[in-house]
Amino acid sequence: MEGQNRAVAPTYLGWSIFNTLCCCLPLGIAAIVYSCRVQNANAVGDSTVATDASRTAKMLNIIALVCGIILLIIFIALKATQQ
């Protein structure tokens, strides 16, 4: 069927994996779950579910990244005060 272009929601799977390994494990795992939901919804053409899951995955990734940065700053501050 030509002419049918449906929007594909971004999965953020790579970002989710990075956050799981480097920033915040629980939020990263949740982001991976939602990223997989986006992939599945995109595959079957359910753009509403894909868009909602994509938005949730993005928000989880942002929160995980911020938590990782805050934890890194706290860790560096603690190390600097020990010397």
UniProtKB/TrEMBL annotation:
Location in the cell: Membrane
Gene Ontology CC entries for this record: membrane
The entry's keywords: Membrane, Transmembrane, Transmembrane helix
Family: Belongs to the CD225/Dispanin family.
Record protein name field: Synapse differentiation-inducing gene protein 1-like
Species the sequence originates in: Takifugu rubripes
Chain's gene name: LOC101074053
